[in-house]
Amino acid sequence: MASREKIENFYRLWNSEVDKLLSGYIYDEEGDFNPTRYIFSYYLNILKKFTENQLEEIEKINLLSGIRGVGKTTLLAQLYYVEKFIPTYKKINYKNVISQNYEKIYLDVSRLSAENITLNEFFNYYQEIKNTRFVDLNEKLLILLDEVHYDEKWGTFLKNVFDATKSHKNILIIATGSSALKIKLNPDLSRRSILEELYPLKFNEYVILKYGQLLKKDAYPTRGLSDNITEAILLSENAKKLFDFCKSNQSEVSKYFSKLPPEAERDYFSFGGFPFILRLKNKKSIIFELISGVIDKLITKDLLEMKKFSSETISKIKDLLYLIASSDATDIDKLCTALRLDYRTVRNVLDALVKSGILVEVRSYGQKFVKVRKPIKFLFISPSLRISLLSGILPPEIKGKILEDYLALIFWKDFRKKRKGFNSDIDIMYDSSAGGADFVLRIGEHKKIIIEVGFGKENEGVRQIENTGKNIGGYDYGIVISTKSDLELVSDKIVKMPLKFWLAI
Asked: What's the confidence (pLDDT) of residue 253?
């Protein structure tokens, strides 16, 4: 138990340093404000509801998970100084947020934990010096908690705050955690919080962050284009309808890419998934090392803290990820042999890596209905992760996997969110049979879309789509994602769709 004097000293020192600490996250090297990511708008609207007394009960506690390095601390800093980051044309809609008629506090829980002070002890002291209590707050209070999982009882603390503030709407807590395993699996908050995930950068976010100051408005795709492309891919009646949509929007996509530097796509796929690399001016060896460090910290901190795996197993996780990065589909039995680990251990490690947000698991079509053990496709949530594991050296047979990693990001970040809009689940699978397609999207009970990445493959993937169509008993339409610039209606069932459309999502 921390003494009152220790808590007071920490509080006074923290208050004196917080502006200086956060300045490194809100300004770039030239002293300009760092651009915001798309998720900033989501939390800006949460703040608006908070200031207007419109918060839903469950919105009082917002949890944000995400792997290290995706910009969670920067987001909290921008929310702390939110008035500086609201575009001029939007300010009229956020008058209450800009006036900041609320108390606010930002706290790095890892530093609190390093001083052996708990969240409960700190906020008991905070309530005392402010002469208030959470249970009957009469002024609004915004609490921003970074790396909240460093407090062992963080879930209990937030649960107790939620339960104590049921009678009013004067508190809003936004808490981040790099340990997605702990954030997602906390039982205390399953019905008391909203959980969001901050993913690595998509291509258009990378362009905004990397070239925004140079390109200004040209760094942004046409408003609504991303949603329109997503809906066209998922909801078109047939291949012809999707082709017509692409044809009518091709000029908008081309206009967007015409303003970008010629190396934009190449650099993005090489190392563009993480905001922290944008200041390194393309020093590839350092970039690969830093991104690899994201994985090392996940292994040595988040997975090790779970106390679920032996030190021998922990020491082999980086090798396991390298084997996945350098292969197509993953045969778990072969991984067991290569790593000299039993099946259950390898399966548990893979499950933990999926829950941590590093890997995406894509099951074989129909796998959950059969007992036969089939190869499972594991993709990385960002191409940057695979490339850093391979130190930038890609065997020819792996180059197509980079595009599949990007699609995994799009599927999980954008496509699965759309299911709420059209009230249907989206299952993301692949065809594990010889000559099968890269992805099968099943929407609801009946609709099936087959997707193949046409990266240097014979006939640009048409044959794979046709093979998979036979294997799964028919499909609505197929999409070959072409790395070239051509758009083509190959047949009444298949569209060849340029990669640029997917990069604009």
From this structure: 96
pLDDT at 189 over 60: yes
Helices within 27-138 (DSSP H only): 39-51, 72-80, 95-99, 109-114, 119-129
Please tell me the pTM assigned to this model.
0.92
Nearest residue to 497 (alpha-carbon basis) of 458, 429, 450:
450
Q: Is 32 helix (H, G, I), strand (E, B) or coil?
A: coil
* CB-based contacts of 63, cutoff 8 Å, min separation 6: 148, 175, 176, 177, 183, 189, 193, 194, 195, 196
Residues 138 and 70 in one domain: yes
| Domain, as residue range, for 261 | 225-503
Please name the residue that has the structure tokens 């104590």. Answer: 164
CA distance 298 to 359: 12
Structure tokens at 171: 């508190």
Task: Assign 143 to helix, strand or coil.
Answer: strand
Q: Is the pLDDT of residue 458 over 90?
A: no
Q: Exposed/middle/buried for 54, CB within 10 Å: 0-12, 13-18, 19+? A: exposed
Q: Are strands 439-443 and 426-430 parallel, antiparallel or unpaired?
A: antiparallel
Phi, psi for 261 (deg, rounded to 5): -60, 150
Q: Which of the 8 DSSP states describes residue 379?
A: E
Under a CB-based contact definition with an 8 Å cutoff, are residues 50 and 6 in contact? no
What integer best gives the mean pLDDT of the chain?
91
Phi-psi region of 244 (alpha: psi -120 to 50; beta: other; left: phi over 0): alpha
Tally of domains in the chain: 2
CA atoms within 13 A on the CB side of 356: 26
d(CA 353, CA 359): 6
User: Residue 210 domain-assigned?
Assistant: no
Percent helix, percent strand, percent coil in the chain, to nearest 5: 55, 15, 30
| 19 and 146 part of one domain | yes
Residues 6+ apart with CB under 8 A from 310: none
Rounded CA separation 468/477 (Å): 11
Neighbouring CB atoms inside 10 A of 185's CB total 12
Whether 211 is covered by a domain: the verdict is no
Q: Which of 66-75, 213-222, 351-360, 403-412 has the lowest mean pLDDT?
A: 213-222
The two tokens of residue 166 are 């049921």
Would residue 213 count as lying in a domain? no
Nearest CA among 72, 75, 49 for reference residue 60: 49
Report CA torsion sign: 469, 474, 475, 478.
positive
Distant-in-sequence, close-in-space partners of 258: CB < 8 Å, separation ≥ 6: none
pLDDT at 182 over 80: no
